[in-house]
Amino acid sequence: MSDDRQTRTEKLASEIADAILDGTLAPGSRLDEHMLAARYGTSRTPVREALRQLATTGLIDLRPRRGAIVAEVTSGELEMLFVAMGELEATCARLSAMSMTPIERRRLGALYDSMGEMVAQDDVPAYTSANTTLHAMFYAGTHNPVLAEMTAGLRRRLGPFRRAQFRAPGRLMLSHAEHGAVVRAVLAGDATAAHAAMLHHVSLVEDAFEQLAGTAMEPTPRARAG
User: Fold this and answer.
1) What are the DSSP calls for 147-182, one per residue?
2) What is the structure's pLDDT at 4?
3) Rounded to whole angstroms, how far apart are CA atoms 157 and 138?
4) Pair 93, 197: CB distance under 8 Å
5) What is the rounded distance in angstroms from the CA atom of residue 178 to the CA atom of residue 53?
6) Which of 14, 45, 124, 209 has the highest count of CB atoms within 10 angstroms of its CB?
7) Do 121 and 158 fall within a single domain?
8) How far apart are CA 164 and CA 154, in angstroms?
9) 143 and 62 in one domain?
């Protein structure tokens, strides 16, 4: 797939995901390719590719002879996914603090600093893209390809939910501050602080999404760094 085509597909997948998360496309709705192509002013091919992407996130089900259906994602399922995400990302941050090379640390610090300008300009698209890159740096910084692949895969599954948090007022600034705690710990080589800061960050990402979606989840016992 060419870069332009991939970008169009990812943008379309993001727009469909937003429509699902804000309730425009309700759970159980059938996602007709013709309808979506007309709605978003595109052809069926990128729609089909976008639906395949979304199927990996659990937002939709692809069923034989029925096509794509908006899935019913329960609060309990999201809770389990976010707990797993938090543990994996916290482990990546801890190992990054121990294993990142000097060059990787400089690049991490430079990206984090550049994101401050995005926050100042309230540039949500740029920040969202940089946010993905920042977290990918933590995965790569583990120098453990197995852990990096597992964490990236779960992040893709939670991608639409994590992107949705940035619609919450003031979330960009808070996200940047939370990242700051993780970045400073990693740059200082403080593995314990990096683990705690990342675990805290992912728990707040979950909270931001819950508040935005108006979801009342029953809390389950789990350790949350403060």
Assistant:
1) HHHHHHHHHHHHHHHHHHGGGSTTHHHHHHHHHHHH
2) 60
3) 18
4) yes
5) 29
6) 209
7) yes
8) 16
9) no
Residues 62-74, mean pLDDT to the nearest whole number: 81
* CA–CA dist 132, 128 (Å, integer): 6
pLDDT at position 140: 98
CATH number at residue 63: 1.10.10.10
Alpha-helix residue ranges (DSSP H) falling in the chain: 3-21, 33-40, 44-55, 75-99, 102-120, 124-141, 145-164, 171-187, 191-213
Residue 123 one-letter amino acid: D
> Which of 44, 70, 96 corresponds to the end of one domain?
70
Q: What's the mean pLDDT in 128-145?
A: 96
Q: Which helix (H) or strand (E) holds 60?
A: strand 60-63
Residue 75 has which token pair?
């609060």
Q: Which residue has the tokens 């659990």?
A: 58
Distance in angstroms (rounded) separating the CA atoms of residues 4 and 126: 17
pLDDT at residue 214, rounded to an integer:
58
Number of domains comprising the chain: 2
- Take residue 142 and report the two structure tokens written for it: 């583990």
Helix axes 191-213, 75-99, angle to 10 degrees: 150
Count of residues in the chain: 226
